[in-house]
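Need fresh eyes. Consider my entry:
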Amino acid sequence: MQTVTLAPHEIREAVSMREAIDAVRGGFVDLAAGQFEMPTRTAMRDGHFLVMNAHHRATASAIVKTLSVNFDRVPAISGTVVWTETGRADTLVADAATVTTLRTGAAVGVATDLLAPADAGRLTLIGAGGQAPDQVRAVHTVRPLRELTVVDSDPRRAEALAATLAPELTGTRIRTATDPGAAVADAEIVCCATPATSPLFPARALPAEVHVNAIGAFRPTMRELPDELLASATVVIDERAAILAEAGEILHALESGALTEDDLTELGTALTAPEAPRAGRTVFKTVGVAMQDWTVARLLADKFLP
């Protein structure tokens, strides 16, 4: 029996964004089919400490993720993902920050591939923190980008991210901005990855047809999207119980009457029973669920464990 511990660079070298997207897509399908035992995560100190776990019934495998979150430090996320299964005596331990950013990006890739117009290629990314690079990589994987606008209140941080991503986005026009409302005006896809506690832009700032991903708000006190957008859009979520416990913008919209629970469709359901092509505005709201960590950990286990 051994424990294999993986550093961030080993995870990055082992799992491509395309592999992660395909794995997470399968995970959402299995979640909709009832293949996961997955309690709502435990949040302590108002989300500064999180514990998440998931068991995949078909493979008798499970993960437990423990992490701390502090937006005043770099990296903001630290912790571990531990993989175990009944068929192997060995255990795998992976860096939680890397797994989290990779699987969150992959979920956005799955949703964008399902909901964004096939020819969409203009992305506005709001927030240039630790989650941001994988948001861009995921969208670029499913919708090759013609234009990218990186928005952050700190111009230097936006410029640094743009410079980091430029070698991966050959042929893509990249610019930076500080005003989210102006930056989303001509976007075809928007990714919100901030710790905001109030909406980042008014609904009227968006085009009539746009797909919006919102990953930043993971506590009831946080909120990136306005009620008016949610009321006028097709809203797809990662998992109902998690959203109703933690997603600030969804909870606010339900309380205000802008949404009802019947307006929310889980991504796994949308993938297994796709509707006609969607027009107008679409939103994918995710707080992140342990199934996503399981999908990436399974890829790592298959590559690193005997």
Observations:
- The longest helix spans residues 96-115.
- The chain has two domains: 3-100+291-304, 117-288.
- The mean pLDDT is 96.
- The domain at 3-100+291-304 is CATH 3.30.1780.10 (ornithine cyclodeaminase, domain 1).
